[in-house]
Amino acid sequence: xxxxxxxxxxxxxxxxxxxxxxxxxxxxxxxxxxxxxxxxxxxxxxxxxxxxxxxxxxxxxxxxxxxxxxxxxxxxxxxxxxxxxxxxxxxxxxxxxxxxxxxxxxxxxxxxxxxxxxxxxxxxxxxxxxxxxxxxxxxxxxxxxxxxxxxxxxxxxxxxxxxxxxxxxxxxxxxxxxxxxxxxxxxxxxxxxxxxxxxxxxxxxxxxxxxxx
Length: 213
Fold this sequence. Notes:
By secondary structure, this protein is mainly alpha-helical. It is built from eight helices and three strands.
């Protein structure tokens, strides 16, 4: 799963209806252009592709008063909403997702109920533990990576990454269980998208042909 699908669906969903440049602006506001493949070309391609797939509905709106082609505004469909929550849940639970996909899921996790997020993260811990057990059938961390030659450094890196991720996940679960953040059904949700015309202090300022569409 590519993080871009989850990011774009999530941004459109939070707006209710948004044109491509708004989505790009939001993703740059979140810094997703630095920690994921959310570059302008990828964003505009994802919008068009998901519109063709029926996950987004494309509305053509009137040209601006200063001229130029009509802009397309996107709205998530019922199918897109189902896809969004499927991607979100998968990203929270799967241990082998890329870090950008997990990062996107953490950014949207509050759109699920608190108890479900805790359950998904605990399942993630279980999968990490099962994976670690399978690795230690061939590699014993206590003996050090040298015990199986320089290839042991690969196993050593994986083990450290897995242990670090498990520690972080346990900390996140503890914070959530202690009442951190506002999850679905608990009150006014946190919305991280920019309103139309709001300045983005983190915008790259780089122009792309898709910005005016």
